[in-house]
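Design review, sub-item: ligand-bound model
Attendees: FS, YL, KQ
YL presented the inputs for the guanosine-5'-triphosphate complex:
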Amino acid sequence: MRAVILSGGKATRLRPLTCNTSKVMIPVLNRPFLQHLVWYLKRHNIVDITLATGKIPDEVESYFGDGSRFDATIEYSTESVPLGTAGAVKNAERFLDRPFVVFNGDVFTDIDLTAMMDVHQRRGAIATLALTPVDDPTAYGVVETDDEGRVTRFLEKPSRDEVTSNLINAGIYILRPDILNYIPPNAFVMFERDVFPSVLEAGETMCAYPSDDYWTDIGTPERYLRLNHDLLGRDIGPRGLKFEGRHDIHPSAQVEGPVLIGKGCRVASNCTIEGPTVLGQGCQIREGAVIQSSLLWQDCEIGRGARLRDSILASSCYVGGESLLDSCVLGDNVRIGSGNQLPQGAKIWPGKSIPRGTISF
Ligand code: GTP
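KQ shared the predicted structure:
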């Protein structure tokens, strides 16, 4: 089976992290998100992958290339203008002559794709949709089913009194190639809004594959941070420490897991690094700094006595001494001068520089 990974969206909600970096390349436990997806697909014996995207981001091409480094085959299907989730799949039609799986390129899951494929084959449906339960389905596409697991209705972002089920579209579909007949070429078409409802109306059978297995998307900074936290807990254990290469941690520094420390990081005396936290490659943490539940991409520098909590810093950020960041998101190359206290939840765009001692909340 082939997988089509959709990765041509604008990723606006993840800005400023995605101002310079494609959503599939943002690091999760110091590896590009797409690498986790490739590993997952391989666990289900899927090694033929089509990446449906706009222009191929340079960093994707140089890291993944033709996929051989990951024992997979990666092909690229590009769009000169965004064609929507279904339009992008139609655009990749030349790769699709057998049943295939479509994956939203921002979904991380343990859903048993092998079992889902069995259900798809047994039921002979034109489409089998993975469904996942959420507490509040009003921000998602709700999918209603009958007692035999057939899809009966789609409700996009229902209001509270319209909600009849907490099962939402998980962004993973197994499709028969003849579904492509329902998608016009070279047009902006969405599966959820345009294709699936008309397939149902035409009397085709669509099946649901509900699952309680871990599922999240990394569509927002909060969910992206939470995925890193969840994976730290389960990959290196609730109190675990993992070092990816040479590092220099001063003996007086306190490191409380789960913490992942990238190659070449330096943590100076009297620092506290409290998990769940990830330090990307080459980060420098100066004397007495405190980092709690945060995610730093590579080459960040945190000054003396600065404090970070629940924050995400993209590559090469500098936070000056004694500055305070709580639930902040910084794009690449942001410089926060010393002695600043950013407002909680602040988002700072790449390259911005805040002079010392100018912000205090
Ligand atoms: P937001 O701008 O924050 O909503 O993010 P997004 O653009 O990624 O949109 P959304 O989360 O709804 O998209 C779900 C998945 O479909 C993501 O992996 C997107 O990259 C992908 N996607 C959305 N629109 C397109 C498109 O027009 N073409 C392709 N190839 N993929 C798309």
